[in-house]
Design goal:
Porin, 5% helix
Length: 203
Amino acid sequence: MRAVLVFWIMVFSTSAQDLQNRTLAQVALDFSPHKYIAVKSATNLKSQTSNNTNLFMGFGYRGKSWSLEVMAQKQFNSNGGFWAQDTRLVKKFGNQKKTTLYIEATPFLTQKAFGWSAYLETGLWKKFSAGGETENVDRPGPDVASLGPRISRSLGCFAGFDVSATGAFRFDPLRQPSKVTGHPHEIRFYLVFNRRIALTDRK
């Protein structure tokens, strides 16, 4: 509990002003014990910079303690958006699988850019987890290289979805202060809805 309080004190004592909410809906349509169709949406709402919506669809393979997804991505934004190819690897560690490593790679198909992100977090207390995350974009001109801590909590089940919430504070040591916000830092809140639907018997 102390870690949670320290985290939020640190977040709200910063000068970051571009509050962000990323709402994700993720559905896995199982058509074999290990293989599934991955369908996702991610909407980023920002207080001062441009919003965007992303749609993903592709295939996934689930092992005992890991999963791998390869999908097509379409982003819609005020500049027209882009197409990309998105690959995600999730690995669980430990006797009770309380530690999670997430790695995502996104080569852009209609722009000269390559994005990648990762997070590592572990269960600490009841339904709380803590760790760190990074999100980066390599592109012509200034790159993005954000890094910071995160706190997550499971919120239970709602309408058949497993729901969780995450708060993260991310700073970019390479980027100059934004002309919009006056700083390079971000506060981001995630709300994640996950659901598995069996198209065949899971054995």
